[in-house]
Design brief:
The complex is a heterodimer of chains A (200) and B (165). Chain A has helices spanning 3-26, 76-90, 112-122, 133-142, 185-199; strands spanning 34-41, 46-49, 52-55, 63-69, 98-104, 127-129, 147-149, 160-163, 166-169, 174-179. With 200 residues, chain A is an alpha+beta fold. Chain B has a single domain (27-163), classed as Immunoglobulin-like (Sandwich). Chain B is 11% helix and 46% strand. In chain B, strand 4 and strand 5 (103-108) form a beta hairpin. Chain B starts with a helix and ends with a strand. The relative contact order of chain B is 0.24. The chains are: A alpha+beta (200), B mainly beta (165).
């Protein structure tokens, strides 16, 4: 075969490969949740942690991963918090740009001390906050979170129905992405890396 | 050749030992059992053995956990898990978590049905044994004793490993 043909074919092949690689690198990432078509500003709030008040807008500059639940929840909430713990570990250095915040939908039983103790069991960096019934109603409504305290014979051992999603708020304070309950730690870690890369 | 035979027999032995779930003689077999690690909450005296939790969780203290496993019914009739007991919790109930329009709700169930020749899986976000008001920290690697009551197979005792949440 003519040497020139081989050289030309190789050059064409290389250009093609470079083009495909370029396209893949620059393609917008496909996230494992619902992406807001236009980023929605997160309504600010202040709730109580055992280290003092926490205001959402004070966390600007980092991504906030917001999850709503309650500490007496035996199944659903610890599953999500354990997934978030694993996602933070798997995201490596990208994780420095994220703050996990767990908000109680059961303020009657969840004190700031209890929330703090509960989240730190998963990761010492996680923040757990609660407030008055009115404050919690306001915050959940602003984020589209539904919850309902179920009747029980006992004042202290009831269950709470609640929306189980993780809301991703970007460093500018906009809601960007919502992970469904079914999102795995791997899904979240992959998205965390992509979010940081896209924001850079 | 001999090595291959040795290897195959080893595999066979491993497979057989994995199958015997300690429930020999029963048509019910329990596999892959685990309990979610959890810490007692709301107590400065977390190491002190607290005997006052017997009546259920107090307003401030107490924490819940859950146990999960796969039940296989090798019998010719359907069976039902109707009750679970454990010393590690003030109360033990069979529960299910269900998703409706994105909202997770959890409620007690009368029992968990296992069809003849079928399986029932208790897993996160679905059926689980709820451990209400744990009496001590459940640390990964520890074992917890559970007694499971079946409608037909009767009571089965199992040892369950505590795993990371």
């Amino acid at each position: 075969m003519d040497r020139r043909v081989i050289i030309i074919a190789s050059v064409v092949l290389l250009i093609g490969l470079a083009f495909i690689t370029y396209q893949q690198v620059n393609a917008p990432p496909i996230y494992h949740g619902s992406v807001y078509a236009t980023p929605k500003p997160a309504v600010d709030f202040t709730l109580q942690s055992d280290q003092g008040p926490v205001r959402l807008s004070d966390l600007r500059g980092r991504f906030v991963l917001l999850y709503f639940g309650y500490t007496y929840c035996p199944d659903v909430c610890p599953t999500t918090l354990a997934n978030l713990k694993k996602a933070v570990e798997q995201a490596g250095r990208a994780a420095e740009n994220f703050q996990v915040v767990f908000i109680s939908v059961d303020p009657r039983r969840d004190t700031p001390a209890r929330m703090g103790e509960y989240v730190r069991y998963f990761n010492p960096e996680f923040i757990g906050i609660t407030g008055t019934q009115e404050e919690i109603s306001g915050v959940t409504a602003n984020f589209g979170i539904h919850y309902h305290l179920n009747d029980s014979e006992s004042e202290t051992s009831y269950t709470v129905d609640h929306t189980s999603v993780v809301i991703v708020i970007d460093p500018q304070g906009n809601q960007r992405l919502v992970w469904p309950h079914a999102a795995t730690a791997q899904d979240m870690a992959t998205d965390m890396k992509a979010l940081v890369k896209q924001t850079r | 050749m001999y090595r291959r035979i040795a290897f195959l027999s080893l595999l066979l032995v491993l497979a057989l030992s994995a199958c015997s779930g300690g429930t020999a003689g029963s048509s019910i077999q329990i596999d892959g059992a685990w309990v979610r690690a959890a810490a007692m909450l709301g107590g400065q005296n977390m190491n002190a053995s607290d005997t006052s939790t017997a009546g259920g969780m107090s307003h401030m203290g107490g924490a819940n956990s859950a146990a999960y496993f796969v039940i296989s019914n090798n019998g010719k009739e359907a069976d039902r898990l109707i009750k679970a007991e454990s010393d590690v919790a003030s109360a033990v109930e069979l529960h299910i978590s269900e998703m409706k329009d994105g909202v997770m709700s959890m409620h007690p169930v009368e029992g968990v049905e296992i069809a003849a020749g079928g399986q029932a899986e208790l897993k996160p976000g679905s059926y689980h044994v709820m451990l209400i008001g744990i009496k001590r920290d459940l640390k990964p690697g520890e074992k917890v004793a559970l007694k499971l009551h079946f409608e037909k197979a009767g009571a089965i005792d199992i040892e369950v490993e505590v795993r990371e949440p």
